[in-house]
Amino acid sequence: MATSNQISPGMTLSIDGKIYRVEFSVRVTVAKGVPFIKTKLKDLMSDEVIEKNFKVDQPVEEVTLSERRLEYLYLEGKDHLFLDIDQLEEALVPVSVVGDKVNYLKESIQIKAMFYGDTIFSIELPQFLELMVMKLEELESKVSVSNASKVALLETGARVEVPLFIEVGDIIKVDTHVGEYVQRI
Known about the structure:
Elements: E1 2-3, E2 12-15, E3 18-28, E4 36-43, E5 49-55, E6 59-62, E7 66-76, E8 79-84, E9 89-94, H1 95-98, E10 110-116, E11 119-124, E12 128-137, E13 149-154, E14 159-163, E15 171-175, E16 180-184
Antiparallel strand pairs: 1-6, 2-3, 2-6, 3-4, 4-5, 7-8, 7-10, 8-9, 10-11, 12-13, 12-15, 13-14, 15-16
């Protein structure tokens, strides 16, 4: 078991049954008070960032997450079914863990998943995906030089602003981390 003095950014801690990644940590010394460790922690299930203070030398539970490669198969009930590529086992990922990333999931896309034991705490999409434009939505305002784009509905359900030359059926490269068009393929 670690102590609060050892807390550093990147560590993963278990606090009150939740798993947090340390985003920021600093030792605070007060002139006429007891020093403490001030941290910012990111809840790996909800992506919520909280601030938490620890007493000096307070025991904390450090946990080790394992990273595995999963391949998306399909939606099964309220969960998403993936194939664990290394262990050739099925893995169900709750909708709450997938979140908005569902807009970029399609069959055979490989992702990284962070596990604690058998529980999946987060998934990470590849930064770039090549997706087909299924429908184009015209912008209601008039097009000007500074606003030369339209909204494309992609095969996964994501909506992305694209340049005017993009047509239905085009394959485009999308940056999944920011949800933006990169180029036509």
